[in-house]
Amino acid sequence: MRIATWNVNSVNARLTNVMEWLADAKPDVLGLQEIKCPDDKFPRLEFEAAGWRVAVHGQKSYNGVAILARHPIDNVVTELAGDPADEQARWIEADIAGIRVVSLYLPNGNPAPGEKFTYKLGWMRRMIDRAQELLAEGRPLVLAGDYNICPTAADVYDPEGWKADALCRPESRALYRELCHLGLTEAFRALHPEPGRYSFWDYQGGAWPRGEGLRIDHLLLSPQAADRLVACDIDKAPRGKDKASDHTPVWVELA
Q1: Binding site: what residues are annotated?
Q2: How, per the record, is the cofactor bound (predicted)?
Q3: CA distance readout (Å), 2 to 25, 44, 116, 248
Q4: Domain ranges across the chain
Q5: Does the annotation mark 105 as catalytic?
Q6: Which residues are annotated as a binding site for Mg(2+)?
């Protein structure tokens, strides 16, 4: 079972690239983030024509998450409990082939400190609460998405220059560690301890050709999923295409 995550930065603008990658990489499940469209503008028919089942939690112009799968998608949840006033579309979870799969888009949080950073930390606390509930079920679980967090200095090309950014601040990293310490395994780092591997390169300042990246897209596995971990990697190729997203896919293979 191959499960991937990709912040596509507008699914309609990136549809050709996504369809090409799906055909080449052949994942069983793909979690999408920043689809940037409401449910009725999501290219459902195009994906279904290619054999994909679809679950969407969209929002006009901003945010939005979705799950594509080759298997039936059941028991879909599109709200992260704890803040009834939160209308941002950042969370979707579902049962797929015996695995609970989450596609999440964690808030950026900049500028920090500030209102957006406070929202980020509160959202992370709600995510931790939900992760505890899901882990208590004792089933395979994959939390896939754009976490907007560089867990350590090894995950950012310029640690000193980014230390005050919401993606690298100690408060963000502390909550990420708390999440992992619930018993989750970060799939990529479990197999790739080397620094300098990134999943995001900003459009500004020539970050892509200069190799100035961040690793902010992660796949966290419950013990039942981690026991099945075979491989995990970052596929840089889509970032080099025309009209590319500023993120690139990350995938995990489970036995």
Answers
A1: 7, 34, 146, 148, 246-247
A2: Probably binds two magnesium or manganese ions per subunit.
A3: 9, 21, 34, 16
A4: 2-254
A5: yes
A6: 7, 34, 146, 148, 246-247
